[in-house]
Fold these 4 entries.
Entry 1:
Amino acid sequence: MASEKWDLQAGAAPRAAWEATRPPSTAGGETPSWRFPLLGLDVSASKIGLALAETPTAWPQPLFTYARVTRTRDLAQCLEWVQRYQAQGVIIGLPLNMDGSAGPRAQWMQRFRRELQARTPIPMLLQDERLSTVEADEMLIAQGMGRDERAERVDAVAAALILQRFLHEREPGSP
């Protein structure tokens, strides 16, 4: 597990393209008042990408990608990250279908969030993550990363994009 951070702001073209798009609506209900730092999680079948937003105005930074073990161990690991980074909230990517419906993977993620929420008092919210991994991969390609390096980093960058969507949708004046 690496502890380095990657610069999402490197390369104006990927950032400009990201800022020009408005992400889909947040899934998961009302938003509480958030305190920082916030953790972002991109949970896939085999990995969890982790990102951190230290303030509401700073770009979230990808931290690392964790190879999943078991559901029980993964939940315990998430709680360890909450403590390590003194997180005040966790934003978890919700893999909705392209039409916005919740398929089996989204339902699995909703259960994962409920199980994690039952173990900690800090707030957790699901955030629509559609195309976040594709966007993350495109950003890493634009930075000149090869396939192996992208495979190590894409989930953490996707977690940062999910967290950025969450923050962007809550900016004053956002629809």
Entry 2:
Amino acid sequence: MSLGLRLPTLPTCAIPSIPSYRKLRPTYAIWLLGQTLLPEAPEYAHEFRLRDQHGRVFLDHGGIWLLELSKFAADAVETEQQRWLKFFNEAERLDEDALPAWMQTQEMRRAMNTLKAFSEQEHAYHAYQARQDYLRERQSIQLEFDDLRAEVEQARADVEQERVAKERERGAKEQERAAKEQERAAKDEALAEIERLKRLLADKPEPSDPGTR
């Protein structure tokens, strides 16, 4: 079984019309590294190309430029490459109103304007993120406050419910006590009536026998 890999193709409308591929200009990928990647190599610029195991170059129309900014320390600018590397190293510390002599080119001024635009966009982005963080924190605080208020209201409702239950219990006990009082009073009244009737019967003379007259 064979495995095939098909690379995606671009539509023909996306490829510019050229008379020959030999007129294509080389295309390089430029990697700017703020830290040292190849400590054993003293130079700061490295050019890599695609080669096979025999050292044969795959194509001559491009490659990868790897630039280690940490190794670049030229004071004087002699080439455009050095100008750009110095810009990448020192751009954040430059004053756009008092640029040094090596920055006095159209490309460098354009690069400075681009950097300023990026800085403004970054500032706006951080301001937006700070605003979002503030809104999220405020929402979190509001939610916590709502939860605490709900807990307080629930506790207050529980206390009120407990008070009402105790009031009902006390009222029921009062009614029970009053009922017992009424029952006892009724018993006392009945006993008193019985005692009164007994006294009446005891004080009443017995009727005489007609046969004895």
Entry 3:
Amino acid sequence: MSIYAALYAALVIFLPGLSYGPLQVRIADCLIAAVPLLGFAGVLGHTLGVFIANIPSPFIPFDLLNTIPSFIMSFVVYYTYKKTNNNYTIIATCSAYSVVLGITVGYMLSYFGAPLLETIMYITIGNIIASVLLGWPLFKLLKKIGIQHWIGKETKNIEVKQDE
């Protein structure tokens, strides 16, 4: 959890031009695709990372409120994959994450004078670039190299023997 949170926060804070404002591609949001592989600790790591990353935001305290939809949607990404075990749910849930964050961040930035609909569109597109176009290959790579095994989250297949 703490490594994820630190990596997310570092990517946002050290790339501020891409991370804050109405035109953004938060590279750190590619990590949302890894959440299902990390389990609920990934949800907590994502939430903590978003909170820490938004502390230096020029739009504080509003930006801190976006921790709430980030938590909810990272849980949706995690839970949907957990229940379906379908790799393609990552694309769908990360897209949904992008839309929800586009709306919430867009509304928040409209209070600072950004045009609402354009900002929602720009934030959503930027988030799709990060969470789907970068996140999907990251998910596949981490799954292929066995990140779940490394962190002890590997699913164990239990065979049930039937009486013959």
Entry 4:
Amino acid sequence: MRKIIYKGKYLTMSTEDVDGHIYERVSVRSGVRVLPIENGKMLFIKEFRKHEGKARLKLIGGWRDKEDLTSLEIAKEELREEISMKARNWSKFYTYETSSGTIEESVDYFVAQDLEKLPPQKNPDSDIVEEIIFLNKLELKEKLKAREIMWDKDITVALMFFE
């Protein structure tokens, strides 16, 4: 039986005794990411995140923290909030799920096409989008090699899209 030792807005940490061995687990709130595509290139944002103390290139995305919205509705909201855009065509590309026994996480990835700029709006998060960058597969790999972008599950899925 799991014993919750911490429950926050985005993380839950628990322990479980299995035959005298204590297993530790972290469950991460589900999330969404958007793969905006234009002219064969994927849109990334360079975002300054106060809690990280620096800017980094990343996909648009967020947490599934609004229980009354679907993953797709949250993805549309994130595209609008982060870069004041909408897309006419949406499709679910991939769901990343991990349950290694230690970390549990699920992220839905959506492709957004036929992008349209909206009037600027204030992002409700404290993060600041400094730049919007469109990259093709080769350019993405070059940014990875130069360590200008962090290798993580999101980048793995972005590269899968280009295959």
